[in-house]
Write a structure and sequence with these properties.
alpha+beta, Trna Endonuclease, Chain: A, domain 1, 5-stranded mixed beta sheet, 3 helices, tRNA_intron_Endo_cat-like_sf, Sen15_fungi, tRNA-intron lyase activity, tRNA processing
């Protein structure tokens, strides 16, 4: 499907040059099974973390508060830093109709975290973040005017954020 490959390259260009992503890689086969993916996917490293699990947020705030108290900087706000994580990206066109079944086919073909560029052996998952327990993809939807909108989709039920 050359049109889907071209779409993936368009999204890759947008991520690299408009959003400063690095380590971008085009995937056409499943890292889990080696079978062809339902459509090309991208993986890459955004310049900052896209999603922080609510439980991880609480833990990070506790750690930052303890650090602030230990350094006696009570007047200053909390400084929380999180490292960016590799993300899956699903290139789509705005006109496409997506169903739970189609999304499920994508999630079934990928591990939680994209493989490193050095390509770990098939089926081996490397996940340095213990809070990342669900698969997620960034759905990149391209409008006919070439505007790209990004949404984060999770596989399964994910605990909602606290307000």
């Amino acid at each position: 499907l050359p049109a889907l490959h071209t779409l993936a390259l368009q999204i890759q260009h947008n991520l690299q040059y408009q959003h400063s992503w690095s380590a971008l890689c085009l995937h056409t086969t499943s890292p889990l099974t080696g079978d062809p993916l339902p459509r090309p996917l991208l993986s890459g490293l955004p310049p900052q973390r896209l999603y922080v699990h609510p439980d991880e947020q609480i833990e990070l705030l506790k750690q930052a508060d303890q650090k602030r108290k230990a350094t006696k900087n009570g007047d200053q706000g909390l400084e929380v830093q999180v490292e960016p994580e590799q993300e899956w990206v699903l290139p789509t066109r705005l006109s496409e109709k997506w169903t739970l079944r189609r999304l499920s086919e994508i999630f079934d073909a990928i591990p939680i975290v994209p493989p490193e560029h050095d390509a770990s052996p098939a089926g081996k998952e490397v996940n340095p973040n213990p809070w990342r327990t669900n698969k997620r993809v960034v759905l990149a939807s391209v409008d006919p005017d070439s505007t790209v909108v990004y949404y984060i989709f999770h596989d399964g039920v994910v605990k909602p954020r606290q307000n």
